[in-house]
Amino acid sequence: MAMAMRLPAISRAVTEVALAPVGLRRLFCSNASRFSFLSPQAETQTPARPQAEPSTNLFVSGLSKRTTSEGLRTAFAQFGEVADAKVVTDRVSGYSKGFGFVRYTTLEDSAKGIAGMDGKFLDGWVIFAEYARPREQSQSYQPQNNMSRPPYYGNR
To answer: Where is there biased composition of kind Polar residues (predicted)?
Structure first.
């Protein structure tokens, strides 16, 4: 009985949606393939970051918090001789920050490492491997001292 009472209401709602303005149909329609909800700015592609020069040092991102340096070395060792593998960890918790570095002995091994591990799973997470960029040389470090004004001694 309750279902029989709902049928007219459902058919009336379907008819109202079909007669609704296009804007409302876009909001409530489940067929999203015909409508683009993206703004025109979102459709333009952003320029890709410049690729780093090939080197023996790889940057690996997307690591699990539980990934260790030894686990990273083992995963990449199947593609060549690994000279060093380091997972960058948080000082307080000791867990991975989600990225690390792998250094191979030759350029050929590093290229095989990227081809073999980029986009693959490690410890349940998809990781990304690319050539590491060299650190940018910052301006010479100038420690800031606040001696330009006299010290504050409170109210006198």
So the answer is: 137-148
Q: Is pLDDT at 50 greater than 60 in this prediction?
A: yes
> Taking the complete model, does pTM exceed 0.70, yes or no?
no
Angle between helices 107-117 and 69-77 (to 10 degrees): 100
CA distances for 67 relative to 2, 12, 97, angstroms: 56, 56, 10
Only one residue has tokens 């015909």, namely: 34
CATH of domain 57-131: 3.30.70.330
Percentage of the chain surpassing pLDDT 70?
56
**Residue 51 pLDDT:** 76
57 band by pLDDT with thresholds 50, 70 and 90: very high
Q: Where are the beta strands (DSSP E) in 90-156?
A: 96-104, 121-122, 125-126, 128-131
Question: What mean pLDDT do residues 13-24 have?
Answer: 52
Residue of 59, 106, 67 lying closest to 75 (CA atoms): 67
List the domain boundaries for the chain.
57-131
